[in-house]
Amino acid sequence: xxxxxxxxxxxxxxxxxxxxxxxxxxxxxxxxxxxxxxxxxxxxxxxxxxxxxxxxxxxxxxxxxxxxxxxxxxxxxxxxxxxxxxxxxxxxxxxxxxxxxxxxxxxxxxxxxxxxxxxxxxxxxxxxxxxxxxxxxxxxxxxxxxxxxxxxxxxxxxxxxxxxxxxxxxxxxxxxxxxxxxxxxxxxxxxxxxxxxxxxxxxxxxxxxxxxxxxxxxxxxxxxxxxxxxxxxxxxxxxxxxxxxxxxxxxxxxxxxxxxxxxxxxxxxxxxxxxxxxxxxxxxxxxxxxxxxxxxxxxxxxxxxxxxxxxxxxxxxxxxxxxxxxxxxxxxxxxxxxxxxxxxxxxxxxx
Length: 351
Description:
Layout: H1 3-19, H2 21-40, E1 49-54, H3 61-65, E2 70-74, H4 78-86, E3 92-95, H5 100-106, E4 111-116, H6 122-140, E5 147-152, H7 164-167, H8 169-193, H9 196-202, H10 207-232, H11 240-264, H12 268-290, H13 304-317, H14 321-350
Parallel strand pairs: 1-2, 1-3, 4-5
Antiparallel strand pairs: 3-4
Helix pairs in contact: 1-10, 2-8, 2-10, 8-10, 8-11, 8-12, 8-13, 10-11, 11-12, 11-13, 11-14, 12-13, 13-14
């Protein structure tokens, strides 16, 4: 391979990319819009405890427990209570048994069911249990023995609560990376259809030079945007090197995907069609980070899972190399596989 030839090809590809007004616009506009959205979103979590309560027999002590920072809302059935917790309407749900008063009076241990949202922190669980015991004390005027059973609805993340905009960091970063699949795939597809690549291969440019230049162009466009975004919003305040490595591997991933899309496409519309399919698939893991419990273990079969999970855990929870190495290794494996498939598919179109 010739570094001089590769440099010339990269400069040519970058010039052609930004000469396309559509992709030049969405590249710059996307970065600006995501930054603006991030900073206008709430930067803190809601400190109020919103708790759902299913009580077949209403207790007078409940009215006394309403106060600042605590909102208890009654529901008509235990099924509606579970639904409210699952959908995030309540951080916890309390279901009282119908014979709770008889249990109090007879000295038995009433069994009280408590349902928690999937991402509720441990301190919230402790607070709710204290609330239940305080409820029993205020109702009867003395400490009573009760049995509390807990159930997590959705995937139990058992992590710290984080502001919504910080939870969306991986989404924005991954979207910036993935959007470059359209531009790079369209650039390659046009050169294949116009036989520009065939003309280049007649010159001293080798196939290795050509693919190296395309790869560098695609990775650079995706990586620089995502890294710049994370730097501006403070996403690199923890373990910046891990974040940069993850974003770089993510950029390689979408570049390999753009090679595959280019091999399958014969026009701008087909690039958009195949690109949207790939974008939706790669977006699913980010959706699972935004709304915990909406996806299950099958999402690990999607390569972008290991990118968004790494960015989320490192930027929001300070995970280190010991926590992220497996994700990075798997992501590297997917990079090599997609890049190889994309190169092989494109070489078939050159012939």
